[in-house]
Amino acid sequence: MANSVVRAPRPTDVQSHTMTVHDIIHNSLIDRAVEHLPQIALTIVIAIVVSTILRRLIGRATNRAIKKNPTETRRDARLKTLASVGKSTVSIVVWAWATLTVLGTIGIDVRPLIASAGVAGVALGFGAQSLVKDFLTGIFMLVEDQYGVGDWIDVGDASGTVEHVSLRTTTIRDSDGTLWFVRNGEITRVGNFSREYAIARVEIPLSLSTDISAASQTILDAATAAAGDQLKGKIIGSPTLDGVSTVSTDHLTIRVKATTKPGAQWEVQRGLMGAIMPALEAAELKTPYPHGIGITGVY
After folding, report:
1. pLDDT at position 146
2. Most exposed residue of 110, 172, 180, 205, measured as fewest CB within 10 angstroms of its CB?
3. What is the CATH number of the domain that holds 167?
4. Which residue numbers delimit the Mechanosensitive ion channel MscS domain (predicted)?
């Protein structure tokens, strides 16, 4: 019998077969994409146009609503916050639709993807708990109107003016110009300095030998004059004198305060201090420190 020779498959045959399967899948997707290129391009163009139009409509509607009542700062801040979140939501929805449409156009069945959304949601709940927490906190923040764009807030690790709010993060610009990106899920408490009104409180240190009655009247007169002049429109009502707030071994402190419009408390504090100190100097009322006003010849 003639020996039958069985030729072992050469590596090049296996490699050729493997590459052929890969090429079939790869080329099939490319061919479908090229074949439906006009539809894909049209879908992308529609997504860009729709997203741009909706975002501009949201922006214009917000601006018109703000111009109708420009003095309602709380309402304006809420509208800006809702507009920011609305624009982000529009982008997510439009581009999710565009992605599914393109996948369906090139022949990829998107029904299993949609059907597995429930399973993916469960996996997301376990694998991305922090992300879900950020979104849920952002939703409650919007519903409860805790703060908005333009508000000065304190969230613990950062404080400053809110510049942008989304369902996941809040962007805060502090007094030094640093921009902080804070995850909503990490915010456990919020101090809002821009709600309804604020209090500007000034503590004036004076010598223990100072005539308290004269000093109190001088401080109140200077604060009242400043409220009707350079601080007019920022103070609600008139400044009030609390009197002596602290007494120490080398000085006493007299407190004066004023109710201000939201966010104006720091400007009012500086303005009151700038008006009170010259008034004390003119009245020759002593400060508690050796080189303070009204004290001379002590070195």
Report:
1. 85
2. 110
3. 2.30.30.60
4. 131-195
45 has pLDDT over 60: yes
**Which carries the bigger pLDDT value, residue 177 or residue 130?**
177
* Structure confidence at residue 230 as a pLDDT band (50, 70, 90): confident
Mapped to the 3 state alphabet, what secondary structure does the chain carry?
Answer: CCCCCCCCCCHHHHHHHHHHHHHHHHHHHHHHHHHCHHHHHHHHHHHHHHHHHHHHHHHHHHHHHHHHCCCCHHHHHHHHHHHHHHHHHHHHHHHHHHHHHHHHHCCCCCHHHHHCHHHHHHHHHHHCHHHHHHHHHHHHHHHHCCCCCCCEEECCCCEEEEEEECCCEEEEECCCCCEEEEEHHHCCCCEECCCCCEEEEEEEEECCCCCHHHHHHHHHHHHHHHHCCCCCCCEEEEEEEEEEEEECCCCEEEEEEEEECCCCHHHHHHHHHHHHHHHHHHCCCCCCCCCCCCCCCCC
- Residue 74: predicted pLDDT: 64
* 117 in a structural domain: no
Same domain, 188 and 206: no
Phi, psi for 272 (deg, rounded to 5): -65, -45
64 is in which domain, residue-wise? Answer: 22-108
The answer, as to whether pTM is greater than 0.70, is no
Last residue of a domain, one of 77, 108, 139: 108
Mean pLDDT, rounded, for 40-68: 88
CATH of the domain at 269: 3.30.70.100
Q: Let me know whether 207 and 277 are in one domain.
A: yes
